[in-house]
Amino acid sequence: MKLYLDSTDNTQVIIRLDDKEFINKVDSPRNQNVFGFLLSCLEKENYKQEDITEIEVNAGPGSFTGSRIGVSIANALGFALGVKVNGQTNPIEPIYSSPPSITKPSR
User: Fold this and answer.
1) Signal peptide: which range, if any (predicted)?
2) Which residue ranges form the domains of the chain, and what is each CATH number?
3) Helices (H), ranges, 1-107
4) Strands 54-57 and 2-6
5) Among 97, 91, 96, 95, which Cα is nearest to 73's?
6) Distance of alpha carbon 74 from alpha carbon 70, whole angstroms
7) Three-state secondary structure call for residue 45
8) Closest C-alpha among 38, 30, 37 to residue 55
9) Facing residues of 35 across strands?
């Protein structure tokens, strides 16, 4: 089964399992719960993680946290299941729409 994952918009998650699409919209990025939503979609369709044979993830550009989480989940699943992510065996990197808003340490 092919898994498609898109969490680049931090107010929704799009998951496709083969040709079935699931969308979870949330009111706050804190409620996104990408992996929990993925597990519920797999369960709803009577799939197990081990049934995943191909992974495609939208690496971005997108929100910093949303892109990072989706790519991290895809890379972790790909590694654990021995499945390529976006057609490659090496981990892929997220593409951010803007630099992270992280303050520099004070000296």
Assistant:
1) none
2) 2-81 (3.30.420.40)
3) 34-44, 64-81
4) parallel
5) 91
6) 6
7) coil
8) 38
9) none
DSSP state of 20: E
Rounded Cα distance, 74 and 13, in Å: 13
Q: Which residue has the tokens 């044979």?
A: 53
DSSP characters for 3-16? Answer: EEEE--STTEEEEE
81: tokens are: 């299941």
Neighbours of 25 (CB within 10 A): 11
Q: Is 22 exposed, middle or buried (0-12, 13-18, 19+ CB in 10 A)?
A: middle
Q: Is-contact 25 15, C-beta < 8 A?
A: no
